[in-house]
Amino acid sequence: MIATSLLEASNAQLKFYPKNTVIFNEKEQPLLYYQIKTGSVKMFNLTEDGKEFVQGFFKDNNSFAEPPLFGDFKYPASAQTTTDSYIYTLAKSDFLELLTAHPEEHLKLTQILCRRMIYKAKIMKEVSVYPPEHRILTLLNHFKTTDNKQNTLYEVKLTRQQISELTGMRVETVIRAIKKLERSNKLTIIERKVYL
Fold this sequence. Notes:
The protein is of the alpha+beta class.
């Protein structure tokens, strides 16, 4: 993401957010750029029945919630830490000045946003059309490709709960589907960890 030295030169603040801290809520006006130094964050929506639908998980060196800054619209989802996290925050005006002064950083950010859009398009299709096993494989293959591990045994870093939240399925459905995928040799489980 954006180099730490550039963030600090642009007046970014490094803030500590304890685990389970809500960073912002859906429908709030965006005022800051966020980039994780260490930790993890989930962006999610609450359904009418109170269930979370996770839009994405972000970890060390990831930024999140940039589109509302560019589009000047309210946050479409809430963000919450899932571990103790240190996160750089940068005022919107300083963020836009940084990108104007450093077009190479703007291009990198644009490429990342495009990859996220492709992921969302794939997942929305999968969630609405295909059976659980297919949805899970698509999700896991996406992360395997994103992590550049196509030709190796890939350890899935998501819990069954996180897979459930990302696909909109119940945890029990995810567990059954993973066992079915293991029986059909489409993935492997070693010491409770999923490998692809």
